[in-house]
């Protein structure tokens, strides 16, 4: 892979104005430099060029996090609709959480390691939107979310580039059984989910907290997707997306 990348700066100018294709281990890569080509890539429809499909393929999400998350994408319309509609209500507590996080972490003049420190900041702040104030300040919860992100980013490319396709499904199941990230997340979330369900049973007019967990509970179907395990898995995976796109 490194050998192939080393030749790119040499050959790329030769193919000025053209699409340049080269091979890496397990995949072909197409580079576009011409303005028209870049514009075509940006305007390509989702069924032609899909960022979600590319991420799923690169990180082998179907095997690493499970097919339930990759096949049922109802969390995406939840983010696009509920999150956007509630930005005005979410922003003040989000700003307050940023301030509280900085006060807790940077409470004195001291040297820090930038990436791990800001990973903690991102995890805590995004979790305020995902699961609310109490759980976002739980250090063990944030450690689990960060560890899951790092493990997926390590295991996914290994599965893609080094493991034959015929073995990926079995090894993915073994990975999930061994690391049990989703089961650990369920331990954190189950009391909060059951508490909200109990309050809804007692009072159908009860207003759920304004966070991602509540939105998923409202959007999910009353069967598989509404199970505590499924909701916990989806919160963990959405947390992974938030952390991956901002810290990695």
Sequence-ordered SSE layout with sheet pairings:
Layout: H1 2-11, E1 20-24, E2 27-31, H2 35-43, H3 51-59, H4 61-64, H5 67-71, H6 75-85, H7 87-105, H8 114-131, H9 133-136, H10 139-162, H11 165-179, H12 181-202, H13 212-219, H14 228-247
Antiparallel strand pairs: 1-2
Helix pairs in contact: 6-13, 7-8, 8-10, 8-14, 10-12, 10-14, 12-14
Account of the protein in words:
The structure is a single chain. This protein is mainly alpha-helical and 248 residues long. It folds into 2 domains: 1-49, no CATH class; 51-247, Cytochrome P450 (Cytochrome p450), CATH 1.10.630. It contains 14 helices and 2 strands. It has helices at residues 2-11, 35-43, 51-59, 61-64, 67-71, 75-85, 87-105, 114-131, 133-136, 139-162, 165-179, 181-202, 212-219, 228-247; strands spanning 20-24, 27-31. It has a two-stranded antiparallel sheet. α8 (114-131) packs across α10 (139-162), α8 (114-131) runs antiparallel to α14 (228-247) and α12 crosses α14. The chain starts with a helix and ends with a helix. One of its GO terms (molecular function) is heme binding. InterPro entries: Cyt_P450, Cyt_P450_sf. It comes from Rhodocollybia butyracea. Its cofactor is heme.
